[in-house]
Design a protein that fits this description.
eight-stranded antiparallel sheet; mainly beta; 1017 residues; 13 helices; disordered N terminus
Length: 1017
């Protein structure tokens, strides 16, 4: 195969995988559009053909440049999502369609062990929101390769780093071979998840799983860790996994490379890179270069960033919201770092995260986040696209438009002649190793320029030079730009990336100072989209044997040199079109679409199958807020997309396609250039109901005469995990995890005779970040304290406790979640609950404990992470169908007394068919700004725990409601448990709002889950 054909095949593979076109359109006879459903058309089924869904086995291999499928190079452009952070299976498809339209050809998926097994030795649950087979099938249908990452440990800022909470009771190292029981449990998880994954392998023709990560970011690579990896990879291979295996080094340090990699049973090296770190309210670290370093320990495999920074997590008490991280890891960072990675030879890259999602219930790890896990990702927690996503799309489209970038070597840095600015500009240059991809035969060039300091905000203008040569000729450009009065520009924290010596189809391009956004054959024209910063100057140098006919919009200049055949097109980025017709062959037409990058958000390339599924014609869309799927039948393109508002849309159709149906509506026939222009309908307004509240106070557990006969007696003298106790003073294990109460609120009751009058008590309690505990003595509320492991002094009111009399102490402790342990230092086996107490008792103290025991979870649909142990939770007050008719009306959500008060409301929704609406619940407290509202909530929608608000810690006050929690066309119920540390604490109101409303998309379906009648009958 000649190389130019190889590049075409490679391009077809990459384009098919991204949905940005692959093959020429088939000729189709004209026919009247057949009516098809507008929205349901995008719900299920194969929307793109590629090696991940064609039912045939394929070989996955690699060389030093790229991964390959059946020998064809494949750059990997991936984004991470967490299925449990989007507990709405239909909306998994929504995110996947947005990713594919945005230039991504792969998706990375962690798998959360604890989500699927709620008790030791119990069955695994892969149904409902936990349906991994559905998840994997959707990825294949949507044209995305899968990077599977099942752990057992995955970190991900989730409970126990993905391990089940019952493993906190083990005293062993949870990520080693030292304890045969723990190892067997880990291997059992791997085996059970592999039973699903092995049905979805590219190598077996079952699906789109391309590669498989074993374990996660192991901090060391000593023999202990190598043996653990060996045990895992042996199990993985025995289970029938045939795709390549890898491990992700926690930074580019060379761990599990070379001999250690091979000894562990791994196939290639990969690493994580978070260059600007995680303080969204602070300074960004500087970007560096890693190619030479990585090549030192991975000389024969592609440079693969298994986790590349796509945002950052946000801790409890931060001075910023999770969504504010989009301003930290912003679109400038995305372009600057993306260009730097390309300049460093990275050809496999995965954003962590592309969509962050929600730490609903108690799934999150409090050490690194609260309910929102928006992460500042390109797709928001509400599933809306951002300007940052547009920058990610820009990079993805570039990699398809210039596929030869992926097989290249670094060469001499380009010259930088600075004209304006004091900042230093650095340049990179790469030369393609496949000569037939270039005009001269010397190889395509990729050039990148950015400031040496990646935090530099100044503007720099400069020029450079370029010498091209190869067996087909040479060309020398002493100054670029060619116009002596013009300069190249680096704007602050941005980067400039362009190509040279590149074939645009069968047109010759010596260079462009613009970034390629599209390079496709659309109908009878070669269509090339070029982009840069609005107002900056750009130019493109082409070669023609004779002076071509140039037709251009205002603001575009051109000049042809008959001596060299060079045609210079110059422009300032805005919105222009240039049509160039070859004088020697008028059928050869090159169309340049010049766009400022600020306009790229609604520009799309999309491919889809024709009726034979043999070809996948491509189309270009301008004006749609999202495009999703397209298919062709009988000369008609059926395009699905989403609109945030009504506005004009133009679609360039493939050759042989004469008319367009958009979201089920025929919208027109193509003009002579193959374009259809129409005004797309926007969404109908959606009414947001006001909430009317009813309330009832609880915490009967604080009363002296409360019947706790069914509670667990906390009297264990030893624990396998020594961090759980016993405490030195009480001499018994009081740890909540030890007794199986892993999530949310836990109650304790202690009985004893006082040995003194008017005592001072002390407690040491652990509840993770932002946790607290409330104390009652003899039924009287005493106060609230931090559950932070520091000794807390509790002073009962004077005269309440007398020497020799019986005392009852009740404690309500909030556990905000289980810790992660990414360094494997045992942090996830930390104490949880009361650890010890000094009660100045006469004789022994009797302790009782009650919470939500994971092993007893009856609500399998909502999982063990849905509930803690509040009285109202145990009684089902949070469930739909609970009768609250006897509760009192409530004008505010302020508590009349310390303790727990429940508030309930219901509302109806009527979301129009074919619309996708995102709702939020907003907690409105006038004291939240200075963090003096000493209360916290647990909030339920239709029985699903959607999150927790803490009024004196913050920062979150607006909460995304996952779509699957809601009934879009009917009744919904909200229940809020407010724990107040003082009378009058709590918000003035809690209100609903919409944050996204668009047409099209994936049909909305409420999750199936039991109500009050099913669970409490």
């Amino acid at each position: 195969m000649k190389f130019r054909h190889l590049i075409a095949a490679c391009g077809a593979l990459a384009l098919a995988a991204t949905g940005i076109g692959a093959a020429n359109a088939a000729q189709a006879a004209s026919a009247s559009p057949a009516p098809i459903p507008a929205v349901s058309a995008v719900n299920a089924g194969k929307h793109l053909s590629f090696p991940g869904n064609d039912g045939r086995p394929h070989e996955v291999s690699w060389d030093k440049y790229t991964f390959k499928v059946d020998g064809e190079p494949l750059h990997i452009y991936s984004g991470e999502i967490h299925y449990w952070r989007l507990p709405s299976p239909n909306q998994w498809r929504d995110i996947m369609q947005k990713m594919r339209a945005g230039g991504f050809n792969a998706i990375s998926l962690y798998f959360f062990w604890g989500y699927h097994q709620d008790r030791e030795g119990g069955p695994y649950d892969f149904t409902g929101v936990k349906d991994l087979d559905k998840l994997m099938t959707m990825a294949a249908e949507e044209g995305l390769y899968v990077i599977a990452r099942p752990g057992p440990y995955i970190n991900a800022e989730i409970s126990m780093g993905g391990l089940p909470a019952w493993l906190t009771n083990s005293g062993a190292n949870l990520r080693s071979t030292e304890d045969p029981k723990v190892l067997a449990q880990s291997l059992d998880w791997i085996h059970n998840v592999n039973e699903i994954l092995k049905r979805h392998q590219v190598t077996d023709g079952g699906g789109s799983m391309l590669m498989y990560q074993s374990e996660n970011e192991m901090f060391f690579q000593a023999d202990t860790q190598v043996k653990f990896q060996q045990a895992l990879t042996t199990q993985i291979r025995q289970d029938g996994i045939t795709v390549p295996l890898f491990h992700n080094d926690w930074a580019p340090n060379g761990q599990f490379s070379g001999e250690k990699m091979r000894a562990a049973g791994l196939d290639f090296y990969a690493y994580d890179d978070y260059p600007i770190r995680f303080d969204c309210g602070g300074m960004r670290f500087e970007l560096g270069d890693h190619e030479a370093k990585v090549r030192g320990f991975a000389p024969d495999s592609p440079i693969f960033v298994a986790e590349g920074q796509g945002g950052a997590f946000s801790p409890w008490g931060a001075k910023f919201q999770a969504s504010d991280c989009i301003r930290f890891a912003d679109d400038n960072f995305i372009r600057q770092w993306g260009a730097t990675n390309i300049a460093n030879g990275v050809t496999a890259f995965n954003y962590y995260m592309i969509f962050g999602g929600t730490n609903w219930g108690w799934t999150g790890s409090p050490h690194s986040g609260f309910t929102s896990y928006d992460y500042g990702a390109g797709i928001t927690e509400d599933r809306a696209l951002t300007g940052k996503f547009s920058a990610q799309k820009e990079l993805g489209y570039f990699q398809v438009a210039a596929p030869a970038f992926a097989r290249s070597e670094p060469i001499q840095k380009p010259q930088v002649d600075l004209k304006f600015g004091s900042a230093i500009v650095k340049g990179y240059q790469r030369l393609g190793v496949d000569p037939e991809a270039s005009v001269t035969g010397g190889g395509m060039r990729t050039l990148v320029f950015r400031h040496v300091s990646s935090n530099q905000t100044a503007t720099s203008r400069f020029s450079t030079s370029l010498q091209l040569s190869g067996p087909n000729g040479e060309a020398s450009f002493a100054r670029i730009p060619a116009d002596p009065n013009r300069y190249l520009t680096v704007n602050g924290r941005d980067a400039l990336m362009f190509t040279a010596d590149q074939l645009l189809g069968d047109f010759d391009m010596y260079y462009t100072t613009s970034e390629l956004f599209a390079n496709e054959q659309l109908a009878s024209s070669r269509f090339v989209a070029l982009t840069g910063t609005a107002g900056d100057y750009g130019e493109t140098m082409l070669r023609f044997d004779a002076e071509p006919l140039v037709q251009a919009d205002q603001g575009v200049d051109w000049k042809y040199d008959p001596a060299t055949g060079q045609l210079l097109i110059s422009y300032v980025y805005g919105d222009q079109t240039v049509k160039i017709t070859d004088a020697t062959d008028p059928s050869r037409v090159l169309e340049l679409r010049i766009l400022s990058r600020s306009e790229l958000g609604n520009k799309w390339l999309l491919a889809g199958p024709d009726s034979s599924n043999a070809t996948q014609p491509k189309l270009w869309v301008e004006g749609a807020d999202v495009v999703r799927t397209v298919e062709y039948r009988d000369g008609v393109a059926y395009l699905n997309g989403s609109m945030n508002a009504s506005h004009p849309v133009t679609v360039r159709l493939p050759e042989g396609v004469g008319s367009l149906v958009f979201n089920g509506e025929p919208v027109g026939s193509a003009n002579e250039s193959g374009a259809v222009s129409f005004t797309a309908r926007g969404p109908l307004p959606v009414a947001v109901p006001a909430l009317q509240w009813r309330s009832l106070s609880e915490n009967p557990e604080s009363a002296v005469d409360f019947d706790d006969s069914s509670w667990t007696l906390a009297n264990a003298k030893t624990a396998e995990n020594p961090k759980q106790g016993p405490g030195l003073v009480q001499g018994v294990v009081l740890d909540a995890n030890y007794y199986g109460y892993h999530e949310g609120d836990v109650w304790y009751r202690a009985y004893f005779k006082s040995n003194v009058n008017n005592p001072l008590y002390s407690f040491v309690a652990f509840g993770a970040e932002a946790s607290n505990f409330l104390v009652w003595v003899n039924g009287t509320y005493v106060g609230a304290y931090d559950a932070n492991g520091i000794l807390q002094i509790v002073r009962p009111p004077w005269g309440l406790v007398k020497k020799g009399e019986d005392v009852t102490v009740a404690v309500l402790l909030r556990n905000n979640g289980q810790r992660v342990d990414w360094q494997n230092f045992g942090e996830s086996q930390h104490a949880m609950g009361i650890h010890d107490a000094t009660l100045l008792s006469r004789g022994e103290v009797t302790w009782k404990i009650m919470g939500a025991k994971s092993a007893d979870t009856a609500d399998k649909a909502r999982t063990t992470y849905n509930n803690g142990g509040l009285y109202g939770e145990r009684e089902g007050w949070y469930l739909p169908g609970f009768d609250d008719s006897s509760w009192a009306p409530a004008r505010t959500l302020r508590a009349s007394e310390p303790g727990v008060t429940w508030f309930r409301s219901d509302f109806d929704l009527n979301v129009p068919a074919g619309q996708d609406v995102a709702f939020r619940l907003n907690v409105n407290s006038s004291r939240f700004g200075n963090l003096t509202d000493h209360s916290r909530t647990v909030m339920f929608i239709n029985g699903w725990n959607m999150g927790t608000w803490v009024g004196d810690v913050g920062p979150q006050k607006s909460f995304t409601i996952p779509a699957g929690f809601l009934n879009p066309n009917g009744r919904n119920e909200i229940a809020i448990a407010l724990t107040a540390e003082e009378a009058g604490a709590g918000p003035e109101s809690v209100t609903l709002s919409t944050v996204m409303n668009q047409t099209g998309g994936v049909a909305w379906e409420q999750n199936a889950a039991p109500g009050y009648a099913e669970l409490k009958r």
